[in-house]
Amino acid sequence: MTTPHATPRATTEGTVYTVTGGDWDEVVESAVKSDDERIIVNMGPQHPSTHGVLRLILEIDGETVTEARCGIGYLHTGIEKNLEFRNWTQGTTFVTRMDYLTPFFNETAYCLGVEKLLGIEDQIPDRATVLRVLLMELNRLSSHLVCIATGGMELGATTIMIYGFRDRELVLDLFELFTGLRMNHAFVRPGGLAQDLPPGAVDQLREFIKTMKKNLPEYDKLATGNPIFKARMQDVGYLDLTGCMALGATGPVLRSAGLPHDLRKTDPYCGYETYDFEVPTADTCDSYGRFLIRLEEMRQSLRIIEQCIERLEPGPVMVADKKIAWPAQLALGPDGLGNSLDHIRNIMGTSMEALIHHFKLVTEGFRVPAGQTYTAVESPKGELGVHVVSDGGTRPYRVHFRDPSFTNLQAMAAMCEGGQVADVIVAVASIDPVMGGVDR
Amino acid sequence: MTENPNANGDERNGNAVPAPRDTGGEVIRVRKGMFGANNGGDTSGYGGLIRTVTLPGAASRPYGGWFDEVADELEGALEEQDLLPANAIEKTVVDRDELTFHIAREHLVQVARTLRDDPALRFELCTGVSGVHFPGDKGRELHAVYHLRSLTHGRIIRLEVSAPDSDPHIPSLVQVYPTNDWHEREAYDFFGLIFDGHPALTRIMMPDDWQGFPQRKDYPLGGIAVEYKGAQIPAPDQRRSYS
Lengths: 440, 243
Hints:
The complex is a heterodimer.
Chain A: E1 6-11, E2 14-19, H1 25-33, E3 39-43, E4 55-61, E5 64-71, H2 79-83, H3 91-95, H4 103-118, H5 126-154, H6 158-179, E6 188-189, E7 192-193, H7 201-224, H8 227-233, H9 241-247, H10 252-255, H11 263-266, H12 287-311, E8 330-333, E9 336-339, H13 341-350, H14 352-363, E10 371-379, E11 382-390, E12 398-402, H15 404-409, H16 412-416, H17 421-431, H18 435-439
Antiparallel strand pairs in A: 1-2, 3-4, 4-5, 6-7, 8-9, 10-11, 11-12
Helix pairs in contact in A: 4-5, 5-6, 5-12, 5-17, 6-7, 7-12, 12-17, 13-14
Chain B: H1 6-13, E1 27-32, E2 50-54, H2 67-80, H3 85-88, E3 89-95, E4 98-103, H4 108-117, E5 125-133, E6 142-150, E7 155-163, E8 169-171, H5 180-191, E9 194-196, E10 226-228, E11 231-233
Parallel strand pairs in B: 4-7, 8-9
Antiparallel strand pairs in B: 1-2, 3-4, 5-6, 6-7, 10-11
């Protein structure tokens, strides 16, 4: 009998069942009849537990995964190619959309690369650098919160999902206050930031830190010692240090194997060497260790944010060089945030040179001396590297992102093969891949 | 200055224009004119302007900092393996505080293995490969760029390998750095670089039956013209660009 939930279809590869509902009877029945023990399960690309459009191809024998492969590319948007057709400043608008959970890391890594090519690293105002660190650490919090929340949900722990998204919302509220947008900010620009913090931002930030200090221990109470949580996560997704090094895994995956490698310490950028924080590690090499590391990193991020607030001195947030700084003075109008009317009146009405300059910089952009550079930042997922090549033009010649999710996802097979089907979900969640970053 | 009466005449003829600074690097492009006005007659007055674009050229010793130490160790280690360093390392570039070794493609695997295994070098982590397409760099159109990080010594270097469009083969580094598996598939997918010895070199981002290599410079971006407030705005790759 055919059910509408699992219709069989004969192909050259054998019978293919498309399972859409909860009725597995026919699949089980025919699997019993079949003399071939091997079943290939195609999970995704539309599956709620694979973090976006990730396709997992699992060869299973009973409940054991014998082979696991990833199919990616479903979210490829050609961002690297698109960058080559826009000017350098417009690039931030694209890169912020790659790993959409870590927009500030994408923007900062890209801008650090462009600034290095321009040779203006020393001219970036202190306030801009401190604010970049502040935004990145807030972003680390929101990214880890999503990881813990969705990871919990995939175990069936919906409470931890609600908690995680509740706290992430607080971070996104801050982002909205600072940049005008909850995601996809394009706020970090080559040379500094799009604009300064609005009035009252620091007070809100202090309030947020107070709330987070109250909320973070709740995750410990809910999950850290929870026997079900531990039973599902311990020894699952095992990848030791040798495996991490061979597969190029970085971030919490590498640190769960005991190596305290964090670019903020080993290859500091944005003045991270002057901040006081610790790099947590675990020696369990498993999903549970990665969970504990993420929790601790959130506490350390709060510490860094507190230090950032102390260092915030009034000052410019964009380089003084008017040949690079985007000539915008934003103001809130009746139709939202836009160029200040006073500024436009000044440009259009008082100075022909200012008008020409504004026009040239906005339509043509600035030129970047020919050469190439590699800059890397420690994103919540690992080493986010940017290889920027310039041919001396007003547009990037080539920008390549080494996204940590892309590299870490390769470790999926090593983590899952030989384990249970149900553990695949936990292992993939512990890598924390974001397909926007994987596929770009 | 009256002793050289021809100077002004020369300037008018364009002969006294200072020659473009030759850094000895690869010429990747010759830029003509200005403002991207290359269709129709030249009304800008800059139509005769010709400039060559070169990447930073080879550096000479001392490179500075730990760069010399890495270069010495690498050369020494290659000599021990009876490989003449001059044959493997085409040139060494130091630019913007970054060290780049241009490696002859036939020696790439041996150099990478040496960089990984030699105790004084120990570049354990490869951050993948990035392809770059220079259609103007004749005979060296396709570049594969590797960044190697040493966690032991806290260093990072760059290896650059080139291949012509007509023979886009580069040996695979998957044996040395298994992490390059997906990275090489990506570079193959977008640039058509064929990594010899890769276990399964297939497309990774684009559909399996895709034709062409999208990140090459001669591959169009695509897109359609859109109407905005009554005007037709051409697709991004059809808009005027500043040369």
